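User: Structure please.
Assistant: Input sequence and predicted structure:
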Amino acid sequence: MRILHVSDSYLPRLGGIEVQVDGIARAQRAAGHDVAVATATPGHAGGPPPSSPYPVDRLVLPMPWELPVGRSVGALLTHRKPDVLHVHAGAASPFAWRAVGRGLDVGLPVVLTVHSLWGPLSRTAYRALFTSWSRRHGLVVTAVSEAAAYPVRRVVDGRVPVRVVSNGVDLERWHASGGPVPPGGGPMHVVAVGRLAPRKEPITLLRVLRDVAAAVPIRATIVGEGPARARMERFLRRHGMETWVRLTGRLDQPGVREVLAGADVFLAPAARESFGLAALEARLAGVPVVAQAGSGVADFVRSGREGLLGRTYADLSAALVTLARDPSLRHRMAAHNRATEPLRVTWPRVLEEFADCYEQAAGVPLTPARWA
């Protein structure tokens, strides 16, 4: 089958959407499909492009701050002749939304994957689009978690199918090796991984750490890079936290795995986390997760089993204090995480669910010949 993925954001920019688009494309390519990616994100300036097993078309328009507006995909659809158009959208994705409309205009089956949690402004903006699109056949919407699907279903109001298809992950790459590590002495090591951007609530993260440290001994490592780093560094200096909170900057996967191998707890404080790929990777590495109960993390972390969930800033602080004071509870959660795997996130399962979505959008079964 010929599959064209369309995404405003793509590598070399690094984030959840970018990693997932590349992961899905690679997995489908390995399964024998003819896959390509179209994006409005520029490549590496002045350097060679990263190696890719599939073609990447960068339909970039010169815009201030490299805003991913992008050129029309119309000519590319004629060139690539995809059997299905798989569009990936965040909260604001002008390139992706235009691609959905263009694909429906030419009669292509379109699967739209929503990677973000829609707020009131997004819901208002997209309601008219879905009203227009629902008059045409061939559109199926997926969301990466139940939390992300809820606002989409409110907007769609039954006019378009909405399904939950989890993000995918290579279990072997993140699965903890060896047996559970027994509780040890010293301060509890709290780890957070993610882009240092406002929507990830990095200052909330630091405030939680500050409040917990006033009650119990802890140390923290924060992995990631982004526009909020300077503000975080000022916060650390102002509150005297530099001696026990380390900002590593961006690390590659082996570097992240090394940090997780020494973690006692993973903290994901963002209330508007649509999925939480870094939290999932920590859970696969055997680390208990503390996160928001209303976020996408709740799809693979049950409070009291894989970690602790809360609904407020105070809940997250209390959860960390509980785990710091009860190493045996951390040990039980870590052992459980090492021994169990969330099967919905395996690549074979994710590809199977997307294949069902493609068939639903096409309105007819996709025969084996079309999958060749």
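DSSP finds 13 helices and 13 strands in the chain.
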